Amino acid sequence: MYESLNFELDQLKQKNLYRNLKKIDQREGPRIKIKNRWLIDFSSNDYLGLSQNTLISQSIIDGLKKYGNGACASHLISGHFCVHDELEKISAKNIGLEKSLYFTSGYLANLSLMTSIAQKDHHIFMDRLNHASLNQGALYSKAKFSRFRHLDYKQLESLLKKKSALTRWIVTDGVFSMDGDMAYIPELLRLCKKYDAYLYIDDAHGFGLLGSSGQGIIEHFLEKKLIAKEDLKRVIYLYTLGKSAGVSGALLNGKREIIDFMIQKAKPYIYSTATSPAIIEGLITSLKIIKKTPELRNKLNELIFFFRATFKHKERMKNSNTAIQPIIIGSEKEVLEISSILEQEGFFVPAIRPPTVEAGLSRLRVSISAIHNESEIAKLINVLNKVLT
Ligand SMILES: Cc1ncc(COP(=O)(O)O)c(C=O)c1O
User: Which of 26, 105, 231, 290 could cross-link with 33 by S-S, CB 3.0 to 4.6 Å?
Assistant: First the structure.
């Protein structure tokens, strides 16, 4: 076995697809320390800078004093504390759906949903650029599964016409994790109504950023009056908490039946130790900050605008107005070289390669955070404009 593993590892190295773990010594504001050098970090999903928020840290510290370090059991045994319940109630109320369930990670939430709710006589329709955890969940589920071209809702409709099933699911990222563009939820809901389907939105990268109180892509389209509250009965909405909320975990929101069924049947949820209640205290504080601090979103949007306006090589950009700003390079080798030049110049911008993105579309994934300032972005742009041709 070791021989065949080594063979595959060597192949990855030859193709510039081998991945190394970067060891981070320390993080402070928008900077990370790697091998004793401070770099300005453009790699994290800490879009609002809340991973560094001291009010959240204080809530976690208070929680540690109150509960100790861990939850010590799974939710259905004795790991489900009142704070888990409180966080879920806050989430359901904020999002405007009936019930909510906390998971230790977004990946686990996606596997849990797909493997418990999606049954043999169901059909899942997925955007081609959906996150790996959604693809994996669909593959592990008993349901049939088709993919449509990215944001091509005409192709989706023709698939919906062809594939009949007892229950049909349209599954999409809200904001796409490697492209930064957005699903157009009004059209997806129109298709759901027409074809009696359900809509599952994974808004890992939209929550905290979109909508006037940061409640994500649903709030965004409700405020634009492009969708209506009564349409939400067809929606299941997930957001992760390791990104804008700056801590970790995920909250899945939907009709009572969905959540109650998952508590009974979702194996990754049932057979996993609950997250420490101290962390949950931190998350409750984080959700309050997200809701009440539009200034963070305003600042982030100004920085995104500044980045897009000053970056010269427009043909390399994607149609993204979110914090994820990909710069398309093409080859794996070249993207690694540019990422390494940026590192020498004091910036950490990760090289994203297949299988995360399609071959030939390797890219730098610049993520902008409200914790950056304009001069840090100007310095990065200056180097990028020079290095790229
Ligand atoms: C769209 C999307 N969904 C789910 C996940 C997984 O979430 P987590 O990191 O909480 O496991 C990610 C991770 O980056 C993601 O981009």
Answer: 26
